[in-house]
Amino acid sequence: MTPEQLLGLTAGFQTSCAVMAACELDLFSAIVDRGSADPETLAKALDLDGRGFSYLLAALASLDLLEIDDGKYRVPEALKPFLDSRSPRSVVPMIRHQANCARGWSQLAWTLKNGVPVPDVAGVNGALVEFQDFVLAMNVVANRLAPKIADSLRNVGLLDFERMLDLGGASGTYSFEFLAKNPNPSAKAVLFDRPAAIEEAKIKAKTALRGDSVEFYPGDFYVDPYPTDVDFVWISAIIHQQDDDATQTMFRKSFDALRPGGAIAVRDVYIRDDQTGPKAAAFFGLNMTVRTLKGKVYSARETISALEKAGFQNARLAIPADDMSAVVAAQKPAD
Ligand SMILES: C[S@@+](CC[C@H](N)C(=O)[O-])C[C@H]1O[C@@H](n2cnc3c(N)ncnc32)[C@H](O)[C@@H]1O
Q1: What is the distance between the alpha carbons of residues 224 and 240, in angstroms, rounded to a whole number?
Q2: Do 279 and 222 contact (CB within 8 A), yes or no?
Q3: How far is the CA of 237 from the centre of ligand 1 (A)?
Q4: With DSSP H G I counted as helix, E B as strand and the rest as coil, what are the percentages for the chain, rounded to 5?
Q5: Are 304 and 298 in contact (CB under 8 A)?
Q6: Domain ranges of the chain
Q7: For residue 214, what are the β-bridge partners?
Q8: Sign, CA torsion 6/8/10/11
Q9: Which superfamily does CATH assign the domain made up of 140-331 to?
Q10: CA nearest neighbour of 300 among 267, 333, 264, 332
Q11: 3-91 — its CATH code?
């Protein structure tokens, strides 16, 4: 690698910060509303000081995220579905979530010295909007991944449940997709998440196919009992936020919630046993280091052992992958 390439590895932060700031300010939606607008009008509409704003607009235009016409800026037609925060295909919630993560990442060296995240200072939109952004960001990822994951689960015989528990199911994307692809037309899902996430899920359920087959269960899965009498527990992108003890308890409570013969599936990014990769697991491990007190990336082997310790049998890496689409699954013994 040349010195220029090395420096190129780190120069990207300025581009990231410019795009993240635009999304935190919801700049693209403000421009879409006006068709096109000059910097003064936009600064006023967004309640900005004005200093530096013309540079932001010019920087975004240099990245082809804006077009300039006679001193006015507009969003390219092809990008409107992704950059308008109100569009169903918008990626803005995920970019805002990245902006929230970036505050911790910018102090990674400090966190590695001290073992804890830097104290978080809320961004311009405040903590509640940050949580909503997080839930919607999960939905941006899940919208793309869920159809593929549902097909993979069906191929390995895990999609023919009668009543599933979606633990930390956020706005319900997986529940809706799994119900839509489940061969059993009377299948149901119970969505267990924090009350604010459940509110987002209720909105989505109104338009989702089989949305009326979802039961909502607001609460804290570290404190509250789990819904029982389920035959499938789906734990997607959850265990990485917690330590081994919490994961063991989560698997034990899932075991108790399941009917005999029921299945559990744990979707996550799994690190190799010697912690040497893959890349997505290494970077996600850093993300958990800067974002949580006890989060980590698990290896598939650790996850399988924890499931066996909780009483499950036939624990295996059911869907191998180098990224967040890997699934470890197991069965509760039939009576
Ligand atoms: C990384 S997201 C994963 C969302 C979804 N399962 C997916 O794969 O897209 C973690 C989810 O767990 C929920 N969650 C985290 N801690 C929780 C708790 N203590 N009780 C209930 N839900 C919790 C969050 O609100 C969030 O929706």
Answers
A1: 20
A2: no
A3: 8
A4: 50, 15, 35
A5: no
A6: 3-91, 140-331
A7: 189
A8: positive
A9: Vaccinia Virus protein VP39 (3.40.50.150)
A10: 267
A11: 1.10.10.10
Q: For residue 189, what pLDDT is reported?
A: 98
- Ligand 1 pocket: which of 100, 221, 250 to mutate (most atoms <8 Å of CB)? 221
Do 3-91 and 140-331 have matching folds? Answer: no
Distance between CA 223 and CA 25 in Å, rounded?
36
Dist. CA 55–CA 76, nearest whole Å:
19
Q: Tokens 């997505």 correspond to what residue? A: 280
pLDDT averaged per 10 residues, the chain (length 335): 93 96 98 98 98 98 97 98 95 95 96 95 89 89 93 96 97 96 95 95 93 97 98 98 98 98 98 98 98 97 98 98 97 94
Query: Token digits for 127?
Result: 């903590």
> Model pTM?
0.94
143 is written with which tokens?
Answer: 């919208």
Q: Token pair for residue 228?
A: 């029982």
Q: Is the CB of residue 224 below 6 angstroms from any atom belonging to ligand 1? A: no
